[in-house]
Amino acid sequence: MHSVLVQEKDFSVQDEWIACRERLEGKAGAVVSFIGLVRERSDTGNVSSLYLEHYPGMTEASIERIVVKAQQRWSLLDVVVIHRIGELQPEDQIVLVIVASAHRADAFAACEFVMDLLKTEAVFWKKETGDEESVWIESTLDDVSRSREWQE
Q1: CA nearest neighbour of 36 among 97, 111, 86, 79
Q2: pTM for this structure?
Q3: Which of 32, 47, 78, 141 is the most exposed place for a label (fewest CB within 10 A)?
Q4: Residue 115: other Cβ atoms inside 10 A
Q5: Please, are residues 101 and 28 in contact by the beta-carbon 8 Å criterion?
Q6: What's the CA gap between 83 and 34, in Å, rounded?
Q7: Going by CATH, does the domain composed of 2-145 fall within 3.90.1170.40?
Q8: Which pLDDT value is given to residue 142?
Q9: HEC states along 112-134?
Q10: pLDDT tens digit string along 59-92?
Q11: Are strands 45-54 and 124-130 parallel, antiparallel or unpaired?
């Protein structure tokens, strides 16, 4: 079971956690979550906003593929991915990943896997606006390296 949402509105971690637990019906031994936030500073200086753009349909499909890869690799009971789009401010929530499994090792590994691949394979365009300029952000070398490690 899994859920993928791409949306402008903020999400409630508590509401998503409760919904996940209800779907699990007591079968999980571990639930791991990750919440990504907009940083106040980046390599280019202070960040005043982050704009995330997506291609409807294609973006969701790219995230679905990542989730399916995780489900094929680990024994998972539920995966939730919510990724926001639009104009975000420092400290705003960007992404939520929740992974449930019977065992913690699978839940931790799968959550990290999903996040690493979201950074390199999900179809998003990110524009960071700072004090002096706006720049389109690409995957970092570290992001690419972490994603490749899962392929080996």
Answers
A1: 97
A2: 0.93
A3: 141
A4: 18
A5: yes
A6: 12
A7: yes
A8: 85
A9: HHHHHHHHHHCCEEEEEEECCCE
A10: 999 999 999 999 999 999 999 999 999 999 999 9
A11: antiparallel
